[in-house]
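User: Before I run my own analysis I want an independent prediction to cross-check against. Here's the chain; please return only the structure tokens and, at the end, one sentence I can use as a sanity check.
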Amino acid sequence: MNGILCGIDRADLWLPLLRGKRICVLTHAPATDGNYVRSADVLTRSLHVTVLCGPEHGLDGLAGPGESVDGVSRDSSTGLPVYSLYCDGEGGSSLSDALKLADAAVCDFSDIGSRFYTYIWSMYDAMQLCAERGIPFYVLDRPNPIGGVRCEGPLLDPRFASFVGRYPIPVRHGLTLGEAALFFNEHITPSCELTVIPVSGWSRTQEFEETGRAWINPSPGMPGPDCARIYTGTCFLEGTNISEGRGTTRPFEMIGAPFLDSEAVARALNSYRIAGIQARPCRFRPAFGKYEGEVCSGIQILLTDRREAGCFEAGIRLLDILRNEVREFEYGDRASHFDHLMGTDRFRLGQETADEFLVRGREESFEFRKSVEDILLYKEEAHR
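Assistant: Structure tokens:
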């Protein structure tokens, strides 16, 4: 593990705090210890765990994007009841019932560092409920797989708060799960009794490839760390009639539609000479999702320099190319979802150009980063 220990690996810290309590564990199969054993199993073997709660995609990570996971099931490994944090496809939760079985809540999610990835918002909702109930909340922290230095994109406009963004943070927020919890707790009224079990040996300059760990898909459509990086720019296409590559082996890295001129789109995006980004024309046939079974023309976004790659900018430039140069491009009935992903309707309505949006993003993310300096747990050099 390259000397890096996640919160779940640090039983010397969490075991004394949690021993003797009835524990509700918010987790999923992608969250594992250094030996790739599920956190749910690690905790159950050491503590009095009474109930498990799974986020979007479920405890086993099998449900599709936005697919409601209703009711109470039973975990085949531990035999424990499993409650859903994603009951109505919009963040509806049965956590309220689950907490009746517990004295403390423990959260261990495998997050990817983007505002519209819903796991941090399941945590946010759970923290609010625990605050109301007077139940202590513990976060077992993990590295941010796309690094903890870079921060990109405008803050969410509160008018567009949803389960893909509850609170004003940038698209690429640069926080770990534990740091996000500390930030949220400053703004939750009342705040909860929060404890973060930190990662040991990680510096925020380190990205996933430097952790020494094998990638485990945190959700069905997130097959690797490059996908997680590019997702910060191409997830917006979910709110359009352009395929974001779901149903292929390269979701979010390949985008297209039957009507696109792949050569023209690739040429237009490459003309911006975005750091670390190269677009190549491609064709693909999605096995599910938009244009299922149809041949799509489009582009694949390649990262030529992972650390410097301007993935967020690439996504905004690509949207601008599509809306201005592709006659068939539209938002249709996905317009509301697009605005929630963007955190504003100004871009879609043409009230803000791509240049203006990117400038505002640089300014607001810079200010955000300054505002969270006092809660950051990790420096730019690893320490133990």
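Sanity check: The chain has a mean pLDDT of 95.
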